[in-house]
Specification:
By secondary structure, this protein is mainly alpha-helical. It is 71% helix and 5% strand. The protein contains four helices and two strands, in the order E-H-H-H-H-E. The chain has helices spanning 7-26, 38-57, 62-82, 90-113; strands spanning 3-5, 114-116. Strands 1-2 form a two-stranded parallel ribbon. Helix 1 (7-26) runs antiparallel to helix 2, helix 2 (38-57) runs antiparallel to helix 3 and helix 3 runs antiparallel to helix 4 (90-113).
């Protein structure tokens, strides 16, 4: 039996994920493990969580949400380039987009475990 979430709770969780990604992306010296390409893994994981959170919260808008999450990743990367403490990296945008596609793929099995209660 799936876990049922109130629609507002699911949307609040997705909004929180959006804010966490923005904060982590724009903060000075984000904490990253000492492993090769850890920043790319962080982008991949962050955007997989972001996309899947929105896809679970608003499942009827899959295409718009995935495209929006990819656009958000591009925007955040451009904002990083405007700072004097972060850098613009097209490979980060690629990792963000790949994370969004992973989030899309994960949203189907996660949607069987966690469902948003219909607000009819």
């Amino acid at each position: 039996m799936p876990i049922l979430l109130h629609p507002r709770l699911a949307q609040a969780a997705a909004l929180l994920a959006t804010l966490i990604v923005a904060y982590a992306s724009l903060m000075h010296n984000p904490p990253l493990p000492e492993v090769p390409q850890s920043d790319k893994w962080a982008h991949l994981l962050g955007y997989a969580c972001l996309a899947s959170a929105w896809l679970l919260a608003l499942p009827r808008h899959r295409l718009a949400l995935v495209l929006g999450a990819i656009g958000y990743g591009i925007l955040i990367e451009c904002l990083q380039g405007l700072t004097d403490y972060r850098s613009f990296d097209p490979l980060d945008m690629l990792a963000n987009g790949a994370g969004c596609l992973i989030g899309l793929a994960l949203s189907w099995p996660l949607g069987r475990i966690v469902r948003v209660r219909r607000s009819d």
